[in-house]
Amino acid sequence: MSTALPTGVTFDAWQPDQHADPYPAYRRVRDAAALFPFEFGDVPVTMVTRYEECAQILTGSDWGHGYSAGISPFRDTTAAIPGSFVRMDPPEHGRYRKVVAKAFTPKTMAEMSPLAGRVVGELVDRALERGELDVLNDLAVPLAVAMVPVRLLGADPADGALFREWQLAIARGSDPDWLLGEQDVAARGTAAMECMGYFARVVARKKEQPSSDLLGELVAASAAGVLTEPEVIGIALLTLVAGMETSINLIGNGMLALLRNPDQVAILRENPDLIAPALDEMMRYDPPTQFTIRVALADTVVGGRTFRRGDGVVVLTASAGRDDRVFADADTFDVTRYAGNRPARKHLGFSLGIHFCVGAPLARIEADTAVRTLFERTSSVDLATERIDYRPSLIHRGIAALPVTLTR
Question: What is d(CA 80, CA 76) in angstroms, rounded to the nearest whole number?
Answer without folding.
Answer: 9
